[in-house]
């Protein structure tokens, strides 16, 4: 990767046993930790920073903002830590990994509250090693073994849950916690506490402050722009955005509306026609999946070299934090089709809801199980795995609906999207601004809705809906769903175009079966998404181990299984 943090709970000599210092722009050795940083934007406002004070060391890696006029987030964090201890993390804002190594004996690594920057670690070398690149941390494991449960969760759900990875000896720091030399301690920054307040007014004001903070990021500014709600608000909130980019056919309605939005707010617009780059699962893309999530979400990866900007903005997870993506809705039956109403389900089945939101397909998983040699009933397995994850996050939620959202956030499948962007650009993640997270945790689920979000957005700019999303012509969710259904069932009406290119068409057009799964002909009839997961898994393992060590005997047909 272009940007990386890698460290050991040990001295410089221990660090050098695993990595060469000249791989990094800066190496800091403190009382208990040695850490290397590689980042060409090191020291830029709002971005990676380091600081040393006597024997004490601090690093904030990624996007970070602090109160007041301090420009070095690491200096601010270390000085505040000396006064209030780990409570200093409460006011650190952004998408980051933070390390404090203090002579007083308290040394730790922490992610932001929602783990938007992963911290991988292993104790296999004998000393705890940690870092942001799972493959590089994995290289320190002398004899890695495949984690069957992590692999199965990834193949059936598209995400390895909790702390698991595809390798048994490699773990990741849980959501809202700190890593120490020989333990992990939970924090309480991300705990639901529903309250009554002015939901719309507070959201509008906090969005504006979040955008102002991020307008300081350096250089030419760009935006990954869709025709939906979540990215357009950035155009009005950060007028310095000069360029926008959309992946899609030039004549697609999604692209046309994105272009209209860019023109409305004075930005240029570039549309990249979907070709093999949209799906191509090579190492340059799969590396960012970290072996735990689908590279499919990095749909822009093949076009990044053509995006001539320094800072890139995106609207990822606005729907999750501000519009209730993981909450369970009531539905109504219309001609054997279940239509969401926009109102909350009073007594949801949390396992069933999360299976649906993660996109679990019973038929596809059954076919996968029949073509491979895992020897596990997928339905029972995924239900048990999700139930375990609900139990693990139970203390953070005050209701079933918030428990659903908490599990969804802590296992967010689309995070590789941001991981890749933040390695290619100075990438801003506005949806996880500390003030917006506080709004999310305090606003009851029935108020975290698209309606609330849009009302807040129109207070910022009353013309923000001049060009509506092509598949959402109405303000009411149920009206959009009913029109979608009617258009699909009525021969004379054109259906809403999907916002994304068709995966099956591209997969077949560029002969991905032959290019990536030629030795696994027995899986060629699986759905494209499941085949891409198989490719992701093998490619990620092979990018840091020898092919023989990365082999997955379970992928052989059952009659040829070796395990």
Automatic annotation (TrEMBL):
<dbReference type="InterPro" id="IPR014729">
    <property type="entry name" value="Rossmann-like_a/b/a_fold"/>
</dbReference>
<dbReference type="InterPro" id="IPR029055">
    <property type="entry name" value="Ntn_hydrolases_N"/>
</dbReference>
<protein>
    <recommendedName>
        <fullName>Asparagine synthetase domain-containing protein</fullName>
    </recommendedName>
</protein>
């Amino acid at each position: 990767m272009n940007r990386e943090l890698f460290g050991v709970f040990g001295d410089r000599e221990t660090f050098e046993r695993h990595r060469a210092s000249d791989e990094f722009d800066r190496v800091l050795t403190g009382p208990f930790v040695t850490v290397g940083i590689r980042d060409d934007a090191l020291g830029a406002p709002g971005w990676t920073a380091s600081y040393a004070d006597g024997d004490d060391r601090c690093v904030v890696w990624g996007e970070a903002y602090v109160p007041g006029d301090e420009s070095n987030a690491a200096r601010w964090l270390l000085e505040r830590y000396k006064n209030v201890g780990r409570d200093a993390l409460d006011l650190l804002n952004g998408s980051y990994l933070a390390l404090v190594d203090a002579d007083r004996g308290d040394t730790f690594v922490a992610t932001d509250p929602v783990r938007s920057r992963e911290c991988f670690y292993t104790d296999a070398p004998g000393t705890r090693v940690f870092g942001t690149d799972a493959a590089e941390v994995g290289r320190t494991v002398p004899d890695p073994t495949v984690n069957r449960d992590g692999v199965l969760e990834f193949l059936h759900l598209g995400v390895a849950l909790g702390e698991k990875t595809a390798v048994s000896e490699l773990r990741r720091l849980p959501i809202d916690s700190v890593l120490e030399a020989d333990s992990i301690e939970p924090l309480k920054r991300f705990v639901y506490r529903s309250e009554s307040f002015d939901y719309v007014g507070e959201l509008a004001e906090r969005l504006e402050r979040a955008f102002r903070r991020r307008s300081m990021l350096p250089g030419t500014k760009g935006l990954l722009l869709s025709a939906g709600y979540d990215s357009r608000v950035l155009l009005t909130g950060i007028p310095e955005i000069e360029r926008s980019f959309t992946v899609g056919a030039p004549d697609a309605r999604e692209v046309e509306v994105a272009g209209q939005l860019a023109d409305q707010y004075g930005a240029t617009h570039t549309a990249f026609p979907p070709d093999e780059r949209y799906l191509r699962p090579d190492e340059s893309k799969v590396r960012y999946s970290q072996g735990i999530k689908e590279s499919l979400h990095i749909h822009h990866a093949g076009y990044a070299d053509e995006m001539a900007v320094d800072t890139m903005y995106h609207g990822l997870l606005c729907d999750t934090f501000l519009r209730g993506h993981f909450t369970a809705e009531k539905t109504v039956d219309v001609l054997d089709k279940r239509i969401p109403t926009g109102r909350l389900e009073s007594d949801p089945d949390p396992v069933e809801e999360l299976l649906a939101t993660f996109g679990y397909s019973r038929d596809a998983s059954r076919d996968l199980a029949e073509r491979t040699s895992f020897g596990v009933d997928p339905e029972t397995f995924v239900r048990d795995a999700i139930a375990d994850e609900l139990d693990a996050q139970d203390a953070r939620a005050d209701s079933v609906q918030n428990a659903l959202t908490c599990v969804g956030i802590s296992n967010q499948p689309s995070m590789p999207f941001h991981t890749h962007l933040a390695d290619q650009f100075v990438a801003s993640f506005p949806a996880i601004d500390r003030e917006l997270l506080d709004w999310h945790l305090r606003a009851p689920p029935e108020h975290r809705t698209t309606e609330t979000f849009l009302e807040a957005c129109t207070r910022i700019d009353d013309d923000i809906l001049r060009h509506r999303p092509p598949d959402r012509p109405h303000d009411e969710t149920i009206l959009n769903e009913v029109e979608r259904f009617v258009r699909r069932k009525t021969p004379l009406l054109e259906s809403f175009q999907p916002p994304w290119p068709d995966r099956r068409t591209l997969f077949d057009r560029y002969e991905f079966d032959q290019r990536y799964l030629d030795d696994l002909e027995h899986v060629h009839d699986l759905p494209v998404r499941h085949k891409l997961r198989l490719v992701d898994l093998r490619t990620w393992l092979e990018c840091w181990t020898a092919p023989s060590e990365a082999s997955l005997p379970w992928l052989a047909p059952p009659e040829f299984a070796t395990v």
